[in-house]
Write a structure and sequence with these properties.
The complex is a heterodimer of chains A (about 290) and B (about 280). In chain A, strands 1-2 form a two-stranded antiparallel ribbon. Chain A contains 13 helices and 2 strands, in the order H-E-E-H-H-H-H-H-H-H-H-H-H-H-H. Chain A has a single domain, classed as MetI-like (MetI-like fold). Chain A has about 290 residues and is mainly α. With about 280 residues, chain B is an all-alpha fold. Chain B has a single domain, classed as MetI-like fold (Orthogonal Bundle). Chain B is built from 14 helices and no strands. The chains are: A mainly alpha (about 290), B mainly alpha (about 280). At the A-B interface, helix 1, helix 3, helix 4, helix 5 and helix 7 of A face helix 1, helix 3, helix 4, helix 5 and helix 6 of B. Chain B: It holds the Pfam family BPD_transp_1. Chain B: It is found in: Cell inner membrane; Cell membrane. Chain B: Keywords: Cell inner membrane, Cell membrane, Membrane, Transmembrane, Transmembrane helix, Transport.
């Protein structure tokens, strides 16, 4: 803005509410997490001792932590890839149809509004080993479904519930991306005799790559941080550690295990990961602005 | 339409309809399950068609108690959820409008520093800093209060960013003209800036309302008094019954009621919702 108001005190007054809330509920806790990461506290919070980097050392020598990282990666990439593929398929189809486009969109996007925990509960009952219709159908087809005992099946359940919620988001962005592809290009290819499939793979899909990359980052962030509710309402990180993602572990070690130092150290590691992802996201957005 | 391929058009419609059916499947099942008495679930499978206990279950859950260890009726928790969602929504919009206004339309020392401090909050969702935030709120004696439910979730930069982008696109001539006509900063804010950002505010309202309504972990941690239970988190309390059978019909009715308001908002204000979604990711 080149033209501004000359007042000097007023902007501070305007900023005050947000700065206050940020300081109290963001900077203060973040600082405490940083500090706590270097201390060991007893479970009652009565005494604590400075132990330097021991919390981090313990974290990075703990096989459970690496397992949780692996779980997070498997979970996040499954959610991102399954969700994006299905959404792309639906978006391509919706882009083709002429009649009822808006009705299709309405009927596909509403799961975005469902809370993750509720999405988990809805799918849980379908897959409940003793009474869920899908679980019973799988059993009759020879698959012994029991996500209470089988870690892989528990993972499939949380991936399905998390993906279900995110398809709407991917669908909207893919549809917008598809509608931005110039019609003339596709018409020219059609006149040259390229089939719809060939046109999709050689023209449309490459042109969608900025959207695809953007969605990949958003989906990974979603799977990392916003699926806590799905996991907590369905598997609670189990059986064993099979669905304990990094965010779930922070909560579990801190509130259930009462290992405050260890949980704080994990928070610090997560902060670094989020920072990195934010930078990637912003760099990408800069690029998009330059090239478009 | 590039060329006419009837079979491909048919396949498109078929795929979309299958997609819609799959997306709706869990809700359909939940609806069916909520119309059967609790005893139907012990029998080994969920009935696949509607039963006749629907009115009774929905009535009990809405007006008496949600059941499964939660003695509060759903309408009461809906009220709490509404207070929390609206508190977060209005709070965020208000403080973000003001701070974006300060950052874009004024020049003052440490302006960039303030911007970066606010920007940093983007990097830390509440789930990541959950333990220390809980301690801070406990120290401030805000557990079991509406302030504790809303205030910590207001600290986020997304809305500030959105308004900053929107304000930056306003031509400087407009400010110049307003100043020449003798309008002070407050008058400019209320008479020019707010009307210009009306659509943006509405779009953000839709997104933030969904965000606020769907809060789960935070209310779960800081409310132990049922007077402050919100609807989404109460599901967790209902599921953690250890003794006896879980009354799935009540849980399903509560789940459906808990998702109804935000889903209605998305469907009813679809245009604003899509705009809000696209804007807040820029």
């Amino acid at each position: 803005m080149t033209v501004t108001f000359p007042q000097k005190g007023l902007p501070w007054l305007l900023l005050l509410p947000q700065l206050l809330v940020t300081a109290i509920f963001f900077l203060w806790p973040a600082e405490q997490a940083l500090e706590q990461a270097f201390y060991q506290e007893d479970a009652f919070g009565l005494s604590r001792e400075f132990i330097g980097l021991e919390n981090f050392a313990a974290l990075f020598t703990d096989p459970l932590y690496y397992q949780s990282m692996l779980t997070t990666l498997v979970f996040s990439f499954s959610v991102a890839i399954v969700g994006m593929s299905l959404a792309l398929l639906l978006a391509v189809m919706a882009d083709r149809v002429i009649r009822g486009k808006l009705a299709y969109q309405t009927l596909l996007i509403w799961p975005y509004a469902v809370a993750p925990a509720l999405a988990g509960v809805l799918w849980w009952i379908l897959f409940d080993p003793s009474m869920g219709p899908i679980a019973l159908w799988l059993k009759s087809a020879g698959v012994d479904w029991n996500h209470y005992l089988n870690g892989n099946q528990a993972m499939i359940l949380v991936v399905i519930a998390s993906t279900w919620k995110q398809i709407s988001y991917n669908f909207l962005f893919f549809l917008a991306g598809l509608q931005a592809v110039p019609r003339s290009l596709i018409e020219a290819a059609a006149i040259d005799g390229a089939s719809p499939f060939k046109r999709f793979w050689t023209i449309v899909f490459p042109l969608l790559s900025p959207t695809t990359f953007f969605l990949l980052v958003v989906n990974l962030v979603y799977a990392f941080f916003e699926t806590f509710g799905v996991i907590d309402a369905t598997t609670k990180g189990g059986p064993g550690q099979s669905t304990t993602t990094l965010v779930y572990k922070v909560f579990n070690d801190g509130f259930v295990g009462l290992d405050l130092g260890g949980s704080a150290a994990q928070s610090v590691v997560l902060m670094a990961i989020v920072g990195l992802m934010t930078v990637i996201q912003f760099r990408f957005i800069e690029r998009k602005v330059q090239y478009s | 339409m590039i060329e006419n391929r009837p079979w491909l058009t048919f396949a498109s419609h078929a795929t979309l309809l299958t997609g819609i059916a799959l997306v709706a499947l869990p809700v359909w099942m939940a609806l069916v399950a909520s119309t059967h008495p609790a005893s139907a679930f012990g029998a080994g499978h969920i009935p696949l068609w509607f039963g006749d206990a629907g009115a009774e279950t929905w009535g009990t859950v809405l007006f008496e108690k949600a059941g499964n260890g939660v003695d509060t009726p759903v309408w009461f928790m809906m009220l709490n959820s509404l207070i929390m969602a609206l508190g977060i929504t209005f709070g965020k919009i208000a403080i973000s409008l003001l701070s974006a206004y300060a950052i874009v339309f004024f020049r003052f020392p440490f302006r960039n520093l303030c911007f970066w401090i606010i920007f940093m909050t983007l990097m830390l969702p509440v789930e990541v800093r959950i333990v220390p935030t809980y301690e801070v709120v406990a120290n401030l004696d805000l557990l079991n209060s509406y302030t504790g439910l809303t205030l910590p979730l207001i600290a986020s930069a997304t809305a500030t960013f959105l308004f900053r982008q929107c304000f930056l696109s306003i031509p400087g001539e407009l400010v110049e003209a307003a100043r020449m006509d003798g309008a002070g900063p407050w008058r400019f804010f209320f008479d020019i800036l707010l009307p210009l950002s009306r659509t943006n505010i509405a779009a953000l309202f839709v997104i933030l309302f969904i965000y606020g309504w769907n809060q789960y972990l935070w209310p779960l941690l800081i409310t132990t008094d049922d007077a402050y239970y919100t609807l989404v988190m109460s599901i967790k309390r209902m599921l953690s019954v250890t003794d006896g059978d879980i009354a799935w019909n009540q849980i399903m009715a509560t789940t459906l009621l808990a998702m109804l308001p935000p889903v209605a908002v998305v469907i009813g204000m679809q245009k604003l919702f899509v705009k809000g979604l696209v804007d807040s990711e820029k």
